[in-house]
Amino acid sequence: MSIYNDYLNEIEERKGQGLHPKPIDGAELLSEIIAQIKDVNNAYRADSLQFFIYNTVPGTTPAANVKAKFLKEIVLGESVVKEITVAFAFELLSHMKGGPSIEVLLDLALGSDVAIAKQAAEVLKTQVYLYDADMARLGDAFKSGNEIAKEILESYAKAEFFTKLPEVAEEIKIVTFIAGEGDISTDLLSPGNQAHSRSDRELHGKCMITPEAQAEIKALQAQHPDKSVMLIAEKGTMGVGSSRMSGVNNVALWSGKQASPYIPFVNIAPIVGGTNGISPIFLTTVDVTGGIGLDLKNWVKKVDEAGNVLRDESGDPILEEVYSVATGTVLTINTKTKKLYKGDQELIDISKAFTPQKLEFIKAGGSYAIVFGKKLQTFASKTLGIDTVPVFAPSKEVSIEGQGLTAVEKIFNKNAVGTTPGKILHAGSDVRVTVNIVGSQDTTGLMTSQELESMAATVISPIVDGAYQSGCHTASVWDNKSKANIPRLMKFMNDFGLITARDPKGVYHAMTDVIHKVLNDITVDDWAIIIGGDSHTRMSKGVAFGADSGTVALALATGEASMPIPESVKVTFKGTMKSYMDFRDVVHATQSQMLQQFGGENVFQGKIIEVHIGTLTADQAFTFTDWTAEMKAKASICISEDATLIESLEIAKSRIQIMIDKGMDNKNQVLQGLINKADKRIAEIQSGEKPALRPDANAKYYAEVVVDLDLIAEPMIADPDVNNVDVSKRYTHDTIRPLSFYGGDKKVDLGFIGSCMVHKGDMKILAQMLKNIENQQGKVEFKAPLVVAPPTYNIVDELKAEGDWEVLQKYSGFEFDDNAPKAAARTSYEKMLYLERPGCNLCMGNQEKAAKGDTVMATSTRLFQGRVVEDTEGKKGESLLSSTPVVVLSTVLGRTPTIEEYKTAVEGINLTKFAPSHKLLVK
């Protein structure tokens, strides 16, 4: 009773928070509940039945294993529960989504009791989450002449698990809710500072937008019980910033429908829209849940009679409303005509939201079921020795005669699975691809582990070259929430087959390195495809896609991902970079010049940025690819010279070796395997057998951007523009301003050097600047706090070996101590330098934060409202993003520097140099 009593106590605590009982995933608690169900006189029996039936987590959780075995006892008559008939037991098994439930169903279907076997077979015909061992059992039984096995396989071959599902409704009635004006970041839907609660879906749902917004959504549902509420980003894009399965889960929790009556707080089918559509990675997450994402285009640029775009005083295009989607507007989605209607009035074509593939996701309740279903049908057909019946929408194959391939098209063609043999595919094709590298981060990792359990996966796919579970998002503060969640996550992922930042056995030292940096190191092939649980999964080798926790789970379990081949935008450079400029300024100028070249249109949105960087090694080039997430690109690819790529691979090898030396490799020697792959790739390049990846000369691009380095005359700053009268233009990354805009007198309250945007060179620049300032002014005195968080331990070790860490220690007032990590987040800062533990720190916003209302100057990528700094009643917090030298000088001065002060401070310092490559001739 002790475990059950603890559960009852927890239930009472949750009642005080307005929450229902937490779903059960533990075997011990459910075993005690089952004992109480069997005891017909038990005082807790009625509640125990409710918990068993309606509040147990499915999949491969320990609780699911116990539940499946008890249901098997009921089916076989070994246990009798009057409230759970044999038919009801089979129904419960049918909702358990694989793992132990499939094992039980196979036991029953292949057993000696014919009546039971037929009932089990009928349930199995509806299931798709079967793995190799499950399929092998069916195949062996069929070969042994088992008729039930044959019957099940014949059903799978016809894909009856899909064809017998209800069709997608022709008309879907919706009522609108404006979730915000301008771009809506996933921080609004699932705040980073609430990351610890993401695996507790009901609790985490309380943080979506505001309590007032949640009440308004509920009120709309009460007024329109026959309609779905569509959350909208008015005059903006929905879901920018990161993929966040938790964001989609929250939207679905408040406005979707329950996936199963027996699975608590798992909702599907959310509907979201944006004037400028849905962020690509967020849209992928919507597909995971069988939802709908609409590009509303309800505001357009105003033009004069000659067709010229009219602009306001700031030079921005003037928008005019085509149709209203104000909160409470009733609209109709027609899935046959693929149009959006207001009454009988046709508003817009929405066919991109209802491709044959997306309609399948909607019908199946999510993309996972389609992925697993296709594999199951293929297996069954092969086992039966018959051709696969065309049931699913054929993959769209776009092949254009005489047209060359972009870099991403080459990678997708190399890694494609199940396409027409010998057919060359271009952008727009729908492709299944093998995934080489997978990354899971720690604040979404618990959800990834839940997704793996729900799809009944127990081991990493053997075709994945390497996978890593990070500890970077919880690196700053080792508090009780982290202590409760992270060790459990690390053990699960380590057992699953990932290399983990923390050793569950405690043998090697915890490595809280930023996930993107580690993935950048363990990617050892420029032809690789990488999937990572964070929007900044943007490698400088291969092509990397930030993804939701579910897509990460699918990649881990199957070694595959499915997506259209995106179009590319080619970025090249001309001119000369000035000696006092930093490469971060080139990154910001790229965005600014692109918007100028295309009249304010962001041609990067939803596309691959193919950047011809050439001469920058992986660390430095990553600064560009990392930022492409803020450019709203789907991903980016670096085109590199052969010698530069070899240098990058040698650096990667040395860092992987450090991980091996620490004891981080596993029994399959994944890390050693990556070093071997790097050696093979280097040999291919050196021999000329396979040079560094390059596009064809006759490849076709959506657009081409030429960045003029001569125009970059002063540091460039990404400004959240928090007081813009047009709310939709606040907190975007498109407002790029020169340093002189601030007149040398904008107060800076705190500086931050860290996150994935900096590399070892930035730390050396910091050390050099401090020495410079001391030489020029006699001492270094900070007029604003400066927080420094190196991205990796490797960088710290290299700085120590080269003497730079000693310089930083000299000027610091705090240095992290791994033997005594902080147990609580800072609430205030002194005017000094803080040397923080490697990891995300302020950028993530879930642990450390600036003081409310502060103006922060940061090397980070995040300027969203409330992320790095929250507002006060009288002042908006703002996070300005700039280069390392600007951040350092701003904290020493307590304000933005003038261009003259900046030039003086960086004199003689080795900033990150860049010169366009003259060797990148396409082949």
Automatic annotation (TrEMBL):
The keyword Ribosomal protein does not apply. GO terms for cellular component: cytosol. Keywords: Iron, Iron-sulfur, Metal-binding. GO terms for biological process: propionate catabolic process, 2-methylcitrate cycle; tricarboxylic acid cycle. InterPro entries: Acnase/IPM_dHydase_lsu_aba_1/3, Acoase/IPM_deHydtase_lsu_aba, Aconitase/3IPM_dehydase_swvl, Aconitase/IPM_isomerase, Aconitase_4Fe-4S_dom, Aconitase_B_HEAT-like_dom, Aconitase_B_HEAT-like_dom_sf, Aconitase_B_swivel. Residues 6-162 form the Aconitase B HEAT-like domain. Residues 176-405 form the Aconitase B swivel domain. Residues 409-894 form the Aconitase/3-isopropylmalate dehydratase large subunit alpha/beta/alpha domain. One of its GO terms (molecular function) is 4 iron, 4 sulfur cluster binding. It comes from the Bacteria. NCBIfam families: PRK09238.1 (NF006690). This is Bifunctional aconitate hydratase 2/2-methylisocitrate dehydratase. It comes from Flavobacterium alvei.
